[in-house]
Amino acid sequence: MDLAIMQPYIFPYIGYYQLIYAVDKFILYDDVTFIKGGWINRNNILINGTASLFTVPLTGASSNREIGAIEINEKMYPIWKKKFLKSLSQNYSSAPFYDDVFPLIEEVLNVSSCSISTLAGRSLLAVCEHLKINTEFVNSSSVYGNHHLSGKDRVIDICKKEDAEHYINPIGGKELYDKSDFEGEGLHLSFIQTGEISYTQSKGDFVPYLSIIDVLMFNSKTETLKLMQNYQLV
To answer: Is the pTM of this model over 0.90?
Structure first.
């Protein structure tokens, strides 16, 4: 079985979904510490031809707290959601697949209170269902009971408990993990490297590394899956 582990991100860029696509089981690492300034609660969409950051408002966001313990800000969230959906409507209403994708985003965001982990997980699962990607999702907090471990030791422990033979990590992990450490535990380690992603947006030059929202707005399901397959394992 092929397995990956990542912190839950809200509507991340296509490379994150490539990692989901590449594995049989995807572990949402919701019981590790929150990363301030990371991509857990934010990403970029296209506004007037440039990348524009959106950020889900949170309560008590701290690098000393676990992701699953951090809630969306109940007071600010409805205001943010209304503005965000309006921005999507204003900037993507002429995109070819707006009518399919906008309701999906509305449904994901249709919550009044929850953790950012839950909201991000909803965004991941909804896109996978939209594209008929059948990867199984598991929340790390609900299963493994291995808080006493960290780093590669915790990753290896999860792989063993899931009877995985192959662990796939984002390419940035080459600085963190050594293949020999995994081989010594009977595991094969690969890193996923995204190929060149390009597609027709609105006007102007292509703007890369945007949220999956942008990909879905401008590409059919078939075209999106073709882009998603543009990676290699190294």
So the answer is: yes
